[in-house]
Amino acid sequence: MGSFLPLLAQDAPAFPSLKADLMQNLGAAAPEGFLCLMVLVVLLLDVIRHKGPSALYPKVTLAGIAIAVVLVCVGSGDHLVGYNGFAALSVDGLGRLFKLVFLITGALTVVFVMRSGKSYGREGEFQVLMFGALAGMCYLASATELIGFYVAFELVSYTGYLMAGYRLESTKGAEASGKYVIFGSVASGVMLFGITLVFGFTGSTEFSVIAEKLMAVDTAEPALMVGAIFTFAGFAFKAAAFPFQFWCPDVYEGAPAPVAGFLAVASKAAAFAVGLRVLAYGVGATPSLDALDPNLGQLLTPNMAFTEQVLAVAAVGTMTWGNLAALRQNNLQRMLAYSSIAQAGYLLMTACVVLHADVSDDALAAIGFYFLIYLFMNLGAFFIVTLMRRDIGSTLVTDLRGIGHRKPLLASCFAIMLISLTGLPPTAGFVGKFLLFAPVIGEGLFVLATIGLINGAISLYYYAKPMREMFLKEPDETTGDLRVVGFDLALIVALTVPLLFFGLFGWDAVADAARDAVAVAR
Amino acid sequence: MGELTITHFLVLGALLFSVGVLCVTLRRNAIGVLIGIEIMLNACNINLVAFSRYTGDIDGAVYAVFVVMLAAAEAAVALAIVLHIFHHAASISVDDYTEMKG
């Protein structure tokens, strides 16, 4: 086991190999490095220009994100990058898939902010925060040890706090960012205390060593378990999972709608990316169990079974609480906040079976693929909210009354997004939900799957509410009209097309591609 | 009475962490809550340095340095946000931040 400071280690290699390692390591972290560079570039640009609103910043940001996407895509292979036997970063399919999710979400968010019709002369700062958040998230997706993970995790948190309060004149925005920063800091403090215990009792900051020791058969060290649970609390907070979901509705309602969409998709995906990696290492760490008695199939160690129970309780609580609370919401933005909590519940349900070696890859693929389509449907819905705020000034469900008669194309696209969020055919949401439920049912967790299906039925009620307003109610004079034409409409259609495409075609291709894409480097 | 062992440091860390949690939950003043959070982070630092010393491995001490740095960044961000709220609510009591409910 290498030390974090390799030069202090006894077997420090000679200088030429240091240089070679450095180049290789920098290459592995190219997307993150580039995003950090863009933070500085935009910050300098903002200081130099300082001329108030400018259309330049969003373009710079979109160009930067495009280059980062290219850097992610050209990276290939599945290997760990580190120094002197110490793995600090992994370059693998799971990381790449999640990085693409973050970057696409970031690009769409920047476009949404641009189209939100609000300009405060501080665009440059928002782009700085966006690049910072993306750099942190991308690092999280491939981090394999605790120190880098913690720094990236906090980078994502701090930029998120500031983005939530980005609309300076909004009292609700200030309250949202205040609640987010206080709850968030407490959660990360609790997580850090857990991490210190985990670090102390496993003696390593590497995820692979930690997962191995946590999942091993005979370590029922109470302090280690307390540490693991505290650490889980931090993840659960970031992913807005039960019982740490209470901050979520207020923050998502008070934050600007594009930012709420960004937090609901990218921030959540970042927490899942790290959590899944740790679980995947846990599976890889116990290969010898099958060898004990092949007839038994895979045996879960007591600690693995305990982890599965914790995740199952969190999953059931998250989806049920989210769906039940969403039922009585009239504000579309707040309803989407609860809906995003419920969606995290379905993902946690599938995360339970990542520990089962035989369906581990299926479960990882299902979660990765679900984030990819969740991005389109959820961001699309938050974009509709952004446009409602811009054109009507209110985001109540009843403000959508009769839109289906006035703007049939827009209303149809929104309806497809809502159907997809519910998980009904013929949309990508159905394929995604099917892939999420298949491994859970396959592993015989019928109670969990049944609760998930009942929740899906409950969610139909509130997802249908906007559809009823749009199509079944006649428009009256009092309802404002959405001026959605040209670029806005094209964007909404563009977000809807993948939902129909994945829903109608390429079932098997999608599942196979996802399975290939989520290889985890060990 | 023996000499100091790692247990002493872990107990101190746990006690300090509890003080921080109490401070966060009982204080109604946003600045007080932030101080509570800083106390929690420092409890973590005690743990990290103690483990580092115990194992003879430098990882924990390095981690503690990162935590100190991030705690400073966090204080900057959090204080800026509290100041921003004060402009809106004219109060730094967390009980007054209740516009959104349900």
Which secondary structure elements does this structure contain, and how are they paired or packed?
The complex is a heterodimer of chains A (522) and B (102).
Chain A: H1 15-28, H2 30-49, H3 56-74, E1 79-83, E2 86-91, H4 93-115, H5 123-142, H6 146-164, H7 171-202, H8 207-215, H9 222-238, H10 248-254, H11 257-284, H12 288-292, H13 302-327, H14 332-352, H15 360-391, H16 403-406, H17 408-422, H18 428-442, H19 446-471, H20 487-504, H21 507-517
Antiparallel strand pairs in A: 1-2
Helix pairs in contact in A: 2-3, 2-5, 3-4, 3-5, 4-5, 4-11, 4-15, 5-6, 5-11, 6-7, 6-11, 7-9, 7-10, 8-11, 10-11, 10-14, 11-14, 11-15, 13-14, 13-19, 14-15, 14-18, 14-19, 15-17, 15-18, 15-20, 15-21, 17-19, 17-20, 18-20
Chain B: H1 6-26, H2 30-55, H3 59-89
Helix pairs in contact in B: 1-2, 2-3
Notes on the structure:
The complex is a heterodimer of chains A (522) and B (102). Helices cover 73% and strands 2% of the residues of chain A. Chain A is mostly helical. Chain A has a two-stranded antiparallel ribbon. In chain A, helix 10 crosses helix 14. The radius of gyration of chain A is 23 Å and the shape is globular. Chain A starts with 14 loop residues before the first helix and ends in a 5-residue tail after the last helix. The N terminus of chain A is likely disordered. Chain B is an all-alpha fold and 102 residues long. Chain B is elongated, with a radius of gyration of 17 Å. The mean pLDDT of chain B is 89. Chains A and B meet through helix 6, helix 7 and helix 10 of A and helix 1, helix 2 and helix 3 of B.
